[in-house]
Amino acid sequence: MKINDIPLGGRFVLEGQTYVKTGPMMARGEGGETRVVPRYMVLQAADGAVAGTPAAAAPAADRAALGQAWSRFYAECRQLVPPQAQGQLEAARQRFLAASGLEK
Q: What residues form DSSP beta bridges with 13?
């Protein structure tokens, strides 16, 4: 399977080491090291994981903390963006919320 087949948080084996997918092409090893995983590399599922299986949802506390951090960041951005660009900022916010699943 390829890195695109693995959901965020999914585990896989690459070159004999187990990694957790942390981004579109990033992974964290068991020792905490991060690595770029090129899309062409062939990976093996770890611990019976199946490609396309959704990653476990983040615990509610983590999602709440992320939501609060995002709200603080967005409030700061609103102060920095000129009034004529506030509509674009809001549109970008809505796209982020929809894509991240933080939308309520």
A: 18, 44
Q: Which two tokens stand for residue 7?
A: 């959901």
Indicate the residue type of 68: Q
Please give the Cα distance from 104 to 97 (Å, whole number): 9
CA dihedral 104, 97, 34, 9 (to 10 degrees): 40
Per-residue pLDDT of 22-71, as tens digits, reads 999 999 998 889 999 999 999 988 865 544 444 445 566 677 888 888 88
Rounded CA separation 7/1 (Å) = 12
Interior/surface letters 74-89, b for 16+ CB within 10 angstroms, e for the rest: eeeeeeeeeeeeeeee
Q: Name the burial class of residue 95, with classes exposed (0-12), middle (13-18) and buried (19+) by CB atoms within 10 angstroms of its CB.
A: exposed
Question: 6-22: per-residue pLDDT in tens?
Answer: 888 888 999 989 999 99
